[in-house]
Amino acid sequence: MTLCSSSSSSQKTWIVHGILVGMAIAAAIGARAYLGRSRKFRSRVVGIIPARYASSRFEGKPLVQILGKPMIQRTWERSKLASTLDHVVVATDDERIADCCRGFGADVIMTSESCRNGTERCNEALEKLEKEYDVVVNIQGDEPLIEPEIIDGVVKALQVSPDAVFSTAVTSLKPEDGLDPNRVKCVVDNRGYAIYFSRGLIPFNKSGGVNPEFPYMLHLGIQSFDSKFLNVYSELQPTPLQVEEDLEQLKVLENGYKMKVIKVDHEAHGVDTPEDVEKIESLMRERNLS
Asked: How far apart are CA 150 and CA 143, in angstroms?
């Protein structure tokens, strides 16, 4: 009985293993087939700023005033300075945000409340745009000091990497932020392609602490997609690593797609809580930004 039970258990394990391997192979084949169809220069670029009113930590965040202007307006104005963007739009499901954006001259695309994240909101907005674009840049609305050069950098990184479907940016991580789960870390290979993203410290060493001499990398929220892949991405089911880390970019890697990463010299100044507004305003005064 024991031998029979052990054999049955072993067979089940191998069946499950075979299914997982088969799924991985299918994903890889799909990735290669997709990339084989998309090896062309991606010239037409749209920047989309997804914005929602509801937030567990900071409700109404896009509309918070920063030195007399709504934060979403600050982000939109900075994005408009990027030379690679042919068009910039705001994608939202909230009429309060839409009315505000139209008031300062932004184009607005209304999206559904069912979008689970900014990427899905960008995809829905892309489908509603009248023109076709090759690259979609997902611009985080809570970075009112985003540098236009970084937007241009991730766009150009994707344009010169035909085997990639996604590009993003990293900067140096401060040692004191090494164990902060709100600071997403990234590791890349020797060719500048992403290996992994984590809320934990990566790489992790035997001492279990932060090595102040190691060049850890902090992931910045800015990211660009091949427009055709953006539709594919939205149809992909959530993946185990994505769910566990709560990081949507991991679904790209888990399905066998390539992601190009650029390193930039940038101080990340996102607005996550009401307390961050005062910090942003102080920085803007220091830089004489009105």
From this structure: 12
Q: Is the dihedral of CA 246, 247, 250, 252 positive or negative?
A: positive
Nearest-angstrom CA–CA distance, 194 and 20: 23
Distance CA 163, CA 157 (A): 11
CA-based nearest residue to 225, from 151, 164, 165: 165
Q: Render the burial of 70-102: b for 16+ CB within 10 Å, e for the rest.
A: bbbbbbbebbeebebbeebbbbbbbeebbebbe
> Any bridge partners for residue 105, and if so which?
none
Alpha-carbon radius of gyration of the chain = 21
CB atoms within 10 A of CB 143: 24
pLDDT digits (tens, 9 = 90+) for 208-262: 999 999 999 999 989 999 999 988 998 899 999 999 999 989 999 999 999 999 9
Backbone angles phi, psi at 217, to 5 degrees: -120, 135
Please state the φ and ψ torsions of residue 148, each to the nearest 5 degrees: -55, -30
169, two tokens: 């940016």
